[in-house]
Amino acid sequence: MDTQQVSAPSRAVSPVRGGATPTSGVMHVNTRHTSRFTVIGNHLAQHRELSLLAIGLSTYIQSLPAGARIGIKTLAERFPDSEARIAAALRELEAHGYLSRTRERLPNGRVVTRTCSYNQPTGTAQRRPAPTPKPRRQALVPDPVAATPPPAPPPPPLPQPRNPLPQYLRAATALLTDLHRHAAEITLTEKDVVLLAPAAATWFERGATPAALRHALTHDLPQPLKRPAKLLRYRLTALLPPPPTPEHPTVLLQNCDRCDRAFRSSTPGNCRDCREEAADDPRSSVPILSG
After folding, report:
1. Residue 110 and residue 54 share a domain
2. Residue 185 pairs with which residues in a beta bridge?
3. Helix, strand, or coil here: 164?
4. Which domain holds residue 231?
5. Which of 169, 218, 236, 243 is the most exposed place for a label (fewest CB within 10 A)?
6. Has residue 31 been placed in a domain?
């Protein structure tokens, strides 16, 4: 008597249950697997809440051997889906109890992620709410107004002198150009100096001395100073002294005829140092002017 082959059916398998051929829909042509196969329950294959990506990802994970790497980056290298979509599918599987990921600390202090795949959904994870899918936006419907922070107000305008005297502008330009000698953090471009010079001249118009203005601009600088021109703009505006009053009129700023240094006097001439130097040197031919 011949021995019956167990791996091969004795007769052709009917394509559908009961032998009836359907007139529409899917037809199954099944071949029995004898190696390299994974048993998947219909509760997963026909899950009504999981996405197709999540069902396929769970099927793939259950087919892997123990110890296989299933990180998001590893799965993204294996499949054409993006890391964001794979991460969302893994969260679906966690929510429905087909996957769990926990952080554990090893005896050597290293923290690892322990991942478990379940061929039957666990009761604990099954009670966790599933992620709510985002509703699709309909065409021709304007997007809701997002809560965006209000724009930053524009900076206040720079002070401008009422009477832009040339000596004030020259003194302001010289002071701003020379600031890096007193504070190495302050480096200004030619454009910065031209922009800030009228504001510095306004200080002189209101009675400030060059020393007072220099101190206001260079004292207690933030570290590190990334935008010196922006800081000077703020200080020239926020620390501006009040305008002079009739009781305290402003003494004009003059430029020394000898060294071109700015000094205060009601009349032009030489600064105090040049006058003293000329007085000590009888050979000096520089006229000594009062003021």
Report:
1. yes
2. none
3. coil
4. 166-280
5. 243
6. no
- Both 46 and 97 in one domain: the answer is yes
Contacts 24+ apart (CB under 8 A), 120-123: 120/41, 120/43, 121/43, 121/96, 121/97, 122/97, 123/97
| Rounded Cα–Cα distance for residues 53 and 90 (Å) | 9
> Which of 27, 28, 34 is CA-nearest to residue 8?
34
Q: Determine the Cα–Cα distance for residues 277 and 287; give it in Å rounded to an integer.
A: 11
Model-wide pTM > 0.90: no
Residue that has been written with the tokens 């480096």 in this structure: 187
Number of domains in the chain: 2
Phi then psi for residue 270, to 5 deg, are: -105, 150
User: In a structure prediction context, what are the per-residue pLDDT tens digits for the chain, which is 291 residues long?
Assistant: 444 444 444 444 445 555 566 778 888 888 888 888 888 889 999 999 999 999 999 999 999 998 888 889 999 999 999 999 999 999 999 999 999 888 888 888 888 888 888 888 876 444 444 456 666 655 555 555 556 778 878 888 999 998 888 888 999 999 999 999 999 999 999 999 999 999 999 999 888 889 999 999 999 999 998 899 999 999 999 999 988 776 666 666 667 777 777 666 756 677 777 877 777 665 554 444 443
Structure tokens at 283: 């050979």
Same domain for 89 and 184, yes or no, is no
**Same structural domain, 175 and 256:** yes
Residues 107 and 175 in one domain: no
In a domain, 291, yes or no: no
Rg (CA), the chain: 42
Four-point Cα dihedral 216, 220, 224, 226, nearest 10: -10
Q: What is the SS3 assignment for 245? A: strand
